[in-house]
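seq:
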Amino acid sequence: MNDLLHAVRCYTDAHVGPDGVAPTPIAGLSTIRALGPSDLAFAISRPLVALVVQGAKHVTMGTQGFAFGAGESLLITADVPTVSQITRASPAAPYYSFVLELDPAVIADLAAEMKAVQVGDDAPVRTGTTDAEVADAAARLIRLLDRPASLPMLAAQLVRELHYWLLAGRHGAAIRRLGWPDGHVSRIARAVAILRADYARPIPVERLAEAAGMSLSSFHQHFKAVTSLSPLQFQKHLRLIEARRLMLADGASASTASFAVGYESVPQFTREYRRMFGRPPVQDVRIARSAAIAA
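struct:
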């Protein structure tokens, strides 16, 4: 784990942006740094693995809370709403993490070649100790970023290896479901892709059910089982999260942000925003900006 910490720290410190994220040329891979505890961050997370190498974080999904720190990983195996907060970080000992979005195509290919694993539970979020093989593959992948000429030849191979060790680990059964083309998780993912792309426009639920290859009743049942939300609630979360980003990052007014994400009524937007974030838009943005300035 020390090798991974060194690799993540060196790369992140050299490439981190003002939002604390250091993107990489490898699709789906980024590293994170925070110099102090963060405010609450709302998101609908994609399937991913996050390896914490320094500091600590807390993630909530619904009524479940997950606290994890250095040497531990967060695994998310479905598109689910999360509220996260970095809980331990300082300028002297920043929070660092390695984040990789899981690739269903790579998972499907590997799963076809691996022996069947014992069926696990359906929980979409879980934490645990980072396996040594996963940490080693992650460290080599980060170090490869310093040799850009080698990326076209070796990056895909290392991403594949990291997926292999995740599948071979104790949560392999949950990850394997992402690679089942006719499984419920993969079918619902097709509908989620439509919602993510067209969240600002009304989307008939029949279109989503058709994309998932399910009847309406079956689609509603499985969508909520996978994401913990109804399709309408999922779209509403996407709209509100994007509206908050527009106000915080782009300086948009509440009315401009509400119309940009598909709301036709500012009062309705304000009510739903307050219900989700705990404060009305103007107050929430003012407090968030003050906290950022203080940090």
